[in-house]
Design a protein that fits this description.
By secondary structure, the protein is mainly beta. The chain has one domain. 14% of the residues lie in helices and 47% in strands. Strands 1, 2, 3, 4, 5, 6, 7, 8, 9, 10, 11, 12, 13 and 14 form a 14-stranded antiparallel beta sheet that branches. A hairpin with a 2-residue loop joins strand 13 and strand 14. The longest helix has 11 residues. The radius of gyration is 19 Å and the shape is globular. The N and C termini lie close together (8 Å). This is DUF3108 domain-containing protein.
């Protein structure tokens, strides 16, 4: 599975953002949300085999049934100096029991190649798409048919996981789902299942999260005989931590861990900030509580709201 697909599984979007394009997510953090809108920005650090290799950011906005998601990442340090890896992704659409994307765009760049992907969708079906440069025909690839472009979720929208039913956001059932991802070139499922519930403390967030186990199921567009594809298909060392977004009845990843052939790839939140409807209060802790204790109490009382060788 190629590097873009790995990040689709892990961060669900491609490697990262050009420095000039980072302003989109940064502006979203600072702007004032509209009435009824909930906005959240999560900064991440990326590590591979215990070595920091990059940073990422996810910014999401939910306004009634409509959502917008922006994802960015950049390789840093020696890896970044060698590969020059960066890019960005954006998706928008409506959300109910699952995201129903209307538009998706991804741009990723490295020292050796640049790729852009654009898709337009209607009711979860791809109606137009473009990849530049075009994919090279390869008889080893499983053919992507029109059937594989129906009822799909793009990699960026896949990061946002709506609550299933009317229960609590940290109901274990919110882990149990199959995400049908199409990234413009390949179709695969990310299958999540409940692992455990635990409490965590991060800058900007303290409270319960769901730990979901993850599996990768290739459907089309991949090379089934490639070692990287077989490795990921058999990989059981993958997980995602989901944190509730108060007021929006959705969950976002706080941590993603994927075992790769080079070691464990971890994408973990370093800061969580939320504005708008049901945003956590910024008031100082009372009664001698520490900030972490106050944050945990507030969270507990809050309303339930590719390395396949491409």
């Amino acid at each position: 599975m190629r590097s873009k697909a790995l990040l689709s599984l892990a961060l669900a979007a491609g490697f990262a953002l050009p420095a000039g394009e980072a302003t989109t997510a940064q502006a979203a953090r600072s702007r004032t949300p509209k009435a009824g809108e909930t906005a959240v920005t999560v900064d991440y650090g990326i590590m591979l085999a215990g070595v920091p290799i990059g940073t990422a950011q996810v910014t999401g906005s939910v306004d009634g049934p409509r959502y917008t998601m922006d994802v960015s990442a950049r390789l840093t340090g020696l890896v970044g100096a060698i590969t020059g890896g960066y890019g960005s992704g954006r998706a928008s659409g409506t959300v109910a029991g699952k995201p129903v994307p209307a538009a998706f765009a991804l741009a990723s760049h490295s020292a050796s190649a640049s790729i852009t992907v654009r898709m337009a969708m209607a009711r979860g079906n791809v109606v137009a798409s473009d990849i530049a440069p075009p994919l090279v025909s390869d008889p080893e690839r499983v053919t992507v048919s029109e059937v594989h472009k129906r009822g799909i979720i793009d990699p960026v929208s896949a990061l946002m996981m709506p609550a299933q039913g009317r229960g609590e956001l940290i109901d274990p059932q919110n882990c149990n789902r199959t995400i049908p991802v199409f990234d413009g070139a390949s179709r695969f499922n990310v299958v999540l299942s409940y692992g455990e519930t635990r409490s965590v403390q991060k800058p900007g967030y303290a409270g319960p999260i769901l730990v979901c186990n993850a599996r990768y199921q290739p459907i089309a567009g991949h090379r089934p005989d490639r070692p990287g594809v077989r490795f990921m298909e058999e990989n059981t060392d993958m997980s995602v931590w989901l944190a509730p977004v108060e007021g929006a009845r959705v969950l976002l990843p706080l941590r993603i861990a994927v075992r790769t052939q080079l070691g464990l790839n971890i994408i973990e939140a370093t800061r969580w900030s939320q504005t708008g409807q049901a945003a956590p209060s910024a008031q100082a802790p009372q009664g001698g509580q520490t900030g972490a204790e106050a944050g945990a109490q507030a969270a507990a009382q809050a309303p339930a709201p590719s390395t396949d060788g491409r």
